[in-house]
Design goal:
- By secondary structure, this protein is mostly beta strands.
- It has a single domain, classed as ATP Synthase, domain 1 (Sandwich).
- It is 0% helix and 71% strand.
- The protein contains no helices and eight strands.
- β1 and β2 form a beta hairpin.
- The protein is globular, with a radius of gyration of 11 Å.
- The relative contact order is 0.31.
Length: 78
Amino acid sequence: MKIEIITPDKTIFAGEGKLVQLPGLDGLFAILQNHAPLIASLKAGKVKIIDNSDVVAYYDITSGVVEVKENHVLVLVE
């Protein structure tokens, strides 16, 4: 699935991956391939991405919103 993490200033990550773990307002949740459409608010924490080569990367965020639609995960963050 396509994953993008974007701030008002720049794109932090853009690429393919198989898992995104996000800090939702009610706790951590993960997005996998073929996830149902979703829009959710995010709180401060770490975004975890596992790419298609099983490389794990973490990105710190302070707040944001995630949209999931048709195997595209768009994370808009501060």
